[in-house]
Amino acid sequence: MKILVVSAHPDDEVLGAGGTLLKHKKTGDSIDWLITTKVSVDKGFTQERVTSRQKEIEIVGQHLGIKKIFQLNYDTMHLSDSTALTMIPEIVKIIAESKPEIIYLVNRSDAHSDHRVTFQAVMACTKSFRAPFIKRVLMYECISETEFGVALAENIFIPNYLVDISEFFEAKINAMKIYESELGEHPFPRSIKNIEALATYRGTMAGVKYAEAFHLLKFIDK
Question: CA within 20 to 30 Å of 163's CA: 24, 153, 170, 217, which one?
Answer without folding.
Answer: 153
